[in-house]
Amino acid sequence: METLKLVVVSAGLGKPSSSRLLADRLAEAATGALAGADRKTDVRVVELRDLAVAVANNLVTGFPAADLRDALAAVGEADGLIVVTPVFAGSYSGLFKSFFDLIEPDALTGTPVLLAATGGTARHSLVTEHALRPLFSYLHALTAPTSVFAATDDWGAGADTHAGGLPARIRRAAEELAGLLGGTAKAPTADADDDADEIVPFEQLLRGH
Question: Looking at the whole model, is its pTM more than 0.85?
Fold first, then answer.
């Protein structure tokens, strides 16, 4: 079976970077989910930090440097994408947007994409929905239903081991991406406990009053 090309785009600017850390965790979970379905994955990480000058020059001159051209080609040829940006001024970073401004308009049509972002507080947790999802919808990408936002508090030891915390969101989003890539029969359902809940017909509820 053909090896899937999974490209991870991280727009983190620092070293170490929480965006890169989240990107690595998502890539590990996605490749694990795909391996469970006997799908091999070739993962490539694109660090936009290293391409910042090339991106700016491309915007001015209209011509990409060799390393930027290679990164743009990798994104355009990917079977699936994981994209992670830090939150700047309530939205994605300028570097993140500038990079995807250079993508050919139809390059991501139908490509499964997992959306993720990092920020200082949970107040920015909807940035994946009001900023990233419209951007990739415009590019005609196929976005996974679950996006992942990690605030500073999510990286704490207590939060990171909580059953419903960041690890659960990473696992769910990664399994959804694997499902979109054909690595699972279907996207994961909610918690197993939800399946045990009995649905009472409305007529039966009315008879009780």
Answer: no
